[in-house]
Write a structure and sequence with these properties.
Layout lengths: L9 E7 L6 E13 L6 E8 L2 H17 L10 H11 L5 H18 L9 H13 L15 H20 L26 H9 L7 H8 L4 H6 L5 E2 L6 E4 L2 E5 L2 E5 L8 E4 L2 H21 L20 H14 L7 H14 L4 H8 L4 H7 L5 H11 L2
Helix pairs in contact: 2-3, 3-5, 7-9, 11-12, 12-13
Family: Belongs to the 'phage' integrase family.
Pfam families: Arm-DNA-bind_4 (PF14657), Phage_integrase (PF00589)
InterPro entries: AP2-like_int_N, CB, DNA_brk_join_enz, Integrase-like_cat_sf, Integrase_catalytic, Integrase_recombinase_N, Phage_Integrase
Length: 391
């Protein structure tokens, strides 16, 4: 059987091995690859392969991709360079959202930042996921990572998938290798909340607690970031109808606090103030005035409702730690600080407050989401309902 003749796009050439200096045979593919979308000119590709078979397969693949408009030319861009360009393009994101996205993509950068973006594989992504969930790898700051949970790991996968999808749309990569990376399985966790009697017990035990007003705000349905970001300018304590307005959100992202607009449009809201909360805030205001007088010129702005002894706002993560410690000090069962928000919505629901009103109070746009997430009945309420059915 005679040897098949090479197509005109493939040429057998001889090159010198840079290491040994000896001549070696290569098969050079030179072919048209469609139109460059940036210049509008026809694009020509020239690549070399070790074997004739590799060259023929490459020619077939390049021709098919050029015909379909999916051909991606070779580029030397690294993962880090693509991340930088992607973050610069996300100028419409809120500062807090951009900070969180930066943190997630910095994890990808730490593992594969120097790798050419076109060389990144699904196996690379899978190895990163395994390393995060196992722990033991070292951060750029020299810290040893603890095993990551499912939520944090899956956020990194999702952010990487969005990055690579954008790179694919730009023609920087042929495929999104993070698209089909398996998410880490999450364990089901029921939402927790205090009963009405537990809320009364907790509030009664807060006398003398410097952060009592923060816990009142949490049990009034505010998110942790809303508590940390609330300013005195947004609190009206003197009018006949005291109120507070949620217009700032202070969240943790990448180990630092970032401020921005509330979580959503409906999160920006003005709430009438219950008397117990007003009393707690008045006491907090007086305490901060006394602390300013004691500290003198070293006192900071004191602009935030929940501030430390020198007038600086708290990190949201610090508030969660103080919440845990406070519950332990009072022998209360532990629920997350965010669960205090669940408590507010659940107790409103059990007291017959319309779901649409609960949604407006806690800042949800969709009342059905409020029902799904927060308005879950508690065991004692279910027992009361059973008794009423058969009374």
């Amino acid at each position: 059987m005679s040897r098949q003749q090479l197509p005109p796009q493939i040429k057998k050439i001889e090159v010198k091995n840079r290491t040994t200096g000896k001549p070696e045979v290569r098969y050079q593919v030179t072919t048209e690859a469609g139109v460059d979308p940036e210049t509008g000119k026809r694009r020509q590709v020239r690549r070399r392969y070790r074997t004739e078979r590799e060259a023929r397969e490459a020619l077939s693949s390049i021709s098919a991709e050029a015909h379909a408009g999916t051909f991606v030319p070779r580029k030397t861009l690294t993962v880090s360079e693509v991340i930088d360009a992607y973050l610069a393009s996300r100028h419409t994101l809120r500062p807090s959202s951009l900070s969180k996205l930066t943190y997630d993509l910095d994890t990808l950068r730490q593992f594969h930042g120097d790798k050419p973006i076109q060389s990144l594989t699904k196996a690379d992504m899978d190895s990163m996921v395994r390393a995060l969930t196992a722990g033991g790898t070292t951060t750029p700051k020299g810290r040893v990572r603890k095993p990551w949970g499912a939520k944090a790991t899956n956020k990194v996968i999702a952010s990487a998938a969005r990055l690579l999808e954008d790179a694919k749309r730009q023609g920087l990569v042929a495929r999104n290798v993070a698209e089909h990376v398996a998410r880490v399985a999450t364990t089901h966790r029921d939402m927790a909340s205090f009963t009405e009697s537990e809320v009364r017990q907790l509030l009664a035990s807060l006398d003398g607690d410097r952060l009592a007003h923060a816990w009142h705000l949490a049990l009034s349905g505010l998110r942790r970031g809303e508590i940390a970001g609330l300013r005195w300018d947004d609190v009206d304590l003197t009018s006949p109808h005291p109120s507070l307005t949620i217009r700032n959100n202070r969240v943790s992202a990448g180990g630092r606090s970032v401020e921005g607009d509330p979580k959503s449009f409906t999160s920006r809201r003005t709430l009438p103030m219950p008397e117990s909360l007003r009393v707690a805030l008045v006491a907090a205001r007086e305490r901060q005035h006394a602390e300013r007088a004691a500290v003198g010129s070293a006192y900071r702005s004191g602009a935030y409702v929940v501030s430390n002894e020198i007038g600086d706002p708290y990190s949201p993560a610090v508030l969660s730690r103080y919440w845990r410690e406070m519950l332990a000090d009072h022998d209360m069962r532990h629920i997350r600080l965010h669960d205090a928000r669940h408590t507010c919505a659940t107790l409103m629901h059990l007291q017959g407050v319309p779901v649409s009103v609960i949604a407006a109070w806690i800042g949800h746009a969709d009342a059905s989401l409020t029902m799904k997430l927060y308005a879950h009945s508690q065991d004692d309420a279910l027992r009361d309902a059973a008794r009423s059915m058969f009374a």
